[in-house]
Amino acid sequence: MEAASSVSDLGILDSVDDASITEIMESWDGFCRATEALLNGHGDLSVGSEFVSHVHSLCKRSLGSLVQDHFLRSLEETFERNGATRFWRHFDAYTHVEVMEMSKSPIQENGIQKVLYKALDDVSLEKQYQEKCLLMLVHALQSYKDSISEERHNSDAERIHLFSKYQLIVSSVLMTTLPRHFPEILHCYFKGRLEELSTIMAGEYEDDNESDDKDDMDLDEKNKVSYRGEMDIDECYQRRKFLENNKLVKNIGKVVRDLRNLGFTSMAEDAYASAIFLLLKDKVHNLAGDDYRSSVLESIKEWIQAVPLQFLYALLAYLGDSVSYDNPSSGLKSPLASHPSSCYPGIDTPSEGLIRWQLRLEYFAYETLQDLRIAKLFEIIVDYPDSSPAIEDLKQCLEYTGQHSKLVDSFISALRYRLLTAGASTNDILHQYVSTIKALRTIDPAGVFLEAVGEPIRDYLRGRKDTIKCIVTMLTDGTGGNPNGPGNTGDSLLEELNRDEENQENAGIDDDFNIDEKQDWINAERWEPDPVEADPSKGSRNRRKVDILGMIVGIIGSKDQLVNEYRVMLAEKLLNKSDYDIDSEIRTLELLKIHFGESSMQRCEIMLNDLIDSKRTNSNIKATITQPSQIGSELGETGVSLDILDATIISSNFWPPIQDEALNIPGPVDQLLADYAKRFHKIKTPRKLLWKKNLGTVKLELQFEGRVVQFTVAPLHAAIIMQFQDQTSWTSKNLAASIGVPVDVLNRRINFWISKGILSESLVTDPNDHIFTLVDDMVEPGKNSVNAGSCEELLVCDEEGERSVASVEDQLHKEMIVYEKFIMGMLTNFGSMALDRIHNTLKMFCLADPPYDKSLQQLQSFLSGLVSEEKLEIRDGMYFLKK
Amino acid sequence: MKVKILRWHAVASWTWDAQDETCGICRMAFDGCCPDCKLPGDDCPLIWGACNHAFHLHCILKWVNSQTPQAHCPMCRREWQFKG
C-alpha cells in the first residue's frame, strides 16, 4: 500500500529537499505513533490534538491518501487483533459440540444466548470505538481541507467512502477468520428464541381465539360503517400483542442488527430463515402426524399467520425494513397477521418483504405437508372414506406445488412393496384399488395420475386367477366376500353401480342439451387442456370420466368374462334358494344391465325370470292339490304330501351347465316328484319337467327317542340319512348302490352326517368298504351332548365345495375339448408348433360351429392341461405330441 | 330313528317334448326361443303341424303369412295345417 502511494507521489519526490524529507519523516513517525496510541488507547483520546496536527502536516505534503491508507490498515490490524480474535474466542467452547446436542439441553442453549449477546456487545463496542477514531481522522482531514480552500467541501462523500471501506474491512476480517461452527451457533440461537416465541404466541393464540372470532364479526359490521374505526381497533389489539413479545423480539432484533453491522447480513438471514423453516416443519409434522381424519391445512396457515409472520413483522419493523412508504399506519400493524380477510388494498399495504416471506412460508408448508402425506398415501388410502380430509389437504397442496409426479412415483413404489405381493389377498388388492380410484378422483378429476397409478395394480391383478371371481363377489355381495375385511367393499361397489345409474341419466340429459348450439358453445368455453403430465399417446376423451366399474372391468379385459362369471355365481345362488325371494338379485341385475348393456345380461335375466315363473307355477300346482290325483291315496300312507314340495323350474338352455349326478332319492319323494311333474304337464302341455334330483335343498327333522334335530341339507344327504330309517347299519358299497351314486362320492358326502355325530364310521376287513352305523343317542351320550342342549337347532349344511353349477374353468375345459382333435391333428402334421401358431391356426380354420373364440391364455391353460395328461410335451415353448 | 321331511325344494328343468332339438326355421333350440323373443317358455311357445313337425309359433306364423295362398310345411312340403 505504501509502495503504491509513493509511486503516485513520484512527481513530488523530485522537488523535495532534505529538510522537508526530515520534516515529513518526523511527522510520519508522529502520525504512526499517534495512530497506534489512539487505536490501542481504549477510549483515551488525549492524543487527539497531536494526531490532528500530524495529519495536517502530512496533508500539506500531499500525503493525504497515504495517511488514509495507513490509518485503515492500522484499523484492520487492530480489529483483527482485538475485535475478531476476541469475538471468536467467545465461541471456542462450542467448537466440538454438535448442534443437535446444543439445542437439546436448555442450559447449553441459554449459555449460547449469553455468549452470543456478550460477544456481540464486545465486538460492537470495539467497532464503535474504532468508528470514533475513524471519525476523528475524517474530521482532521476535513479541517485541513477547510483551512486551505476556505470554501466548504462536500465532506459527506469522503466520510461515507471511508466508512464503507471500514465496514468492508470489518466484515472481511470476520469472514476470513470465521470458525465453521458459527452459523450453527446462530441457527441454534434463533431456533431457541423462535421456539420460545412460538410457545408464548401459541398460548396467546388460544386465549385470543374466542375474542378473535368476536372481533371478526364486529369488524365485519364496522367495516360497513367506516374503515377507519376498524383500523383503530385492530391496531390496538395488535399493539397489545406486540408489547408482550416486545422484549423478546427486541433482543432478537438487536442480535440481527449487530450481526448486520458486522457484515453478517446474509448469514443472519439464513440462520433465522432456516430456524423458521425448521420450526414450521416441526409444526407441520406435529399437526399432521398420523391422523388423517381431520384437515390440518387451515390450522397450519393460521399458525403461519400467528407465529412466524408476527415474528418477522416485528423483526422487520425493528430493523426498519418493513415501513411501507406510502402509508405510515401500516407500519403499526400487520394486516396478514391474524385477519387475512381484512386486507384492504389501498388502506393497508403490507410490506413487500413480508408478503414475500408469507409466500415462501406457505409454499414451504404446502410442500412439507404434501411430502408427508405422499409418503403415507398408502395408509391414507387404506382407510379412505375416513381419511378424506387428508386427501383434501393433499389436493390443495398439490394444486399449489404441482408436484404430482412425486405422488405417482412414490405411490407406485409403495404399492409394489406393500400391496402387489403374493401375501395380499385379491380382495384386499381390489379393495385398495377401488379406494385408490376414489381418492385419486378427488385429487385429480381428469384421472391422469390415476391412469399411471392404476396400471401396475391392473397388471398384477390380471395375473391372478381369482380376480374375476372376487370382482363379481364384490359387485353382487353386500359383504364383499371379505370376511376379515371391513366388509364395505361390496357395498361400495354396489353403491358405485347406483351412482353410475345417476350418471347415465345425467349423461342422457347432457346429450339432449348438446343439440343446443348455445350449450355447445358453453362446453367449448369450458374446455381445459389436459395436465402437462398427461400421456399424449392416450386420447383425452376416454380419460374424461373416471368410472370405477369401467376401471374394474378394465382389469379383466372384457365384460363378457365378467358377465359369465356373474352368471355362474347367480346360478349357484339361485339354485340354493329355497324361497323364491330374489329382490336383491333383481336389483343387482338391473344395475348391471345399465352398465353392461341389456343384451349381455339377457341370460341372467331369463334365469331370474325362471325363478319368478317357478314361484307362480308352483302355486298353480299347489292349487290343483284339492283335486286329488290317482296316486293321492298312496301319499296318505307314506305321510308326505305334495304340500312339502316346492320346485325351481329352469330354462336349462340359458343356465350355465349344471352338474348332473344320478341319485336315487327316497321312494315317497320320488313319487311326489312324479306327481308334481304330471301336474306340471297338465298345466303347461306340452311341456315336461326333467328333475335334477341332486339339486335343491331339503329341510328335515331327525326324530330320535326323546330328541329332535333339524337340518337343512342337500338331497344327497337326505337320501343317505333316510336309508338309515329301516336299517341302522350299511356298508358303503351297499349304500352307494341303493342311493345310486359312486362309492367315492358317497364316502365324501357322508362325512357331513359323521361330522354331525349322527352316523359313525368303522373299518372292516376290506379296506375299501366302510361300515356306517347310526349313532343312537342312548348309546353314546357324550358325543351327542354337543347337540343335546339345542334340539331344535337348524343346521345349514356347508357344501364342502360341492357346487351345483360347473365352474367357469370347467365350462371352458368342456368347450376346449372340441379342439383337442384339431390340435392333435395339427401336431401330427407339423411335428411341433409354438403356442401362438396353434392359436392362429385354430382361429383360421375353426370358423364353423363352434367358432374358435378363445384367448391365447385360455388356449395355453388348456394345452398345459393336455401336457399334464401326458398327451403333449412342451420343450422350449414348442408343443410336441407325446410319443 | 325316523326322518320327517319338512320341506323339499327340488330343481327341475322344463322341455318342450319335441322330437327334434332345434326349430327348422330359425335353427334355434326349441327350449330356447325364436330370434324375436327374449324369454323362452310361455312367451315363445311351440306349435305342431298336422305333419307332426314342430316350430316356434312365431317362426311358423311368419312363414305361413309369407306363403300365399297355401303354406307348406318347411320340412316336408306337405300342406301346412296346425295340429288341432
Could you characterize what this model shows?
The complex is a heterodimer of chains A (883) and B (84). Chain A has 883 residues and is mainly α. Among the domains of chain A are: 15-107 and 121-178; 696-777, Arc Repressor Mutant, subunit A; 808-881, Arc Repressor Mutant, subunit A (Orthogonal Bundle). Helix content of chain A is 66%, strand content 7%. Chain A contains 36 helices and ten strands. In chain A, the strands form three sheets. Chain A has a three-stranded mixed β-sheet. A three-stranded antiparallel β-sheet of chain A has the order 4-6-5. In chain A, helix 17 packs parallel to helix 19 (448-462). The longest helix of chain A is centred in the first third of the chain and has 44 residues, at 106-149. Chain B has 84 residues and is of the alpha+beta class. Chain B has one helix and three strands. Chain B has one helix at residues 57-66, and strands spanning 2-16, 46-48, 54-56. Chain B has a two-stranded antiparallel ribbon with strand order 2-3. Chain B starts with a strand and ends in an 18-residue tail after the last helix. The model of chain B has no long low-confidence stretch (mean pLDDT 87). The A-B interface holds A 575, 577-578, 602, 605-606, 609, 613, 639-640, 644-655, 658, 669, 672-673, 676-677, 680, 684, 686-693, 695-704, 710, 715, 718, 721-722, 724-725, 728, 774, 776, 804 and B 1-17, 29, 31-32, 38-42, 46. Strand 2 (687-704) of chain A pairs antiparallel with strand 1 (2-16) of chain B.
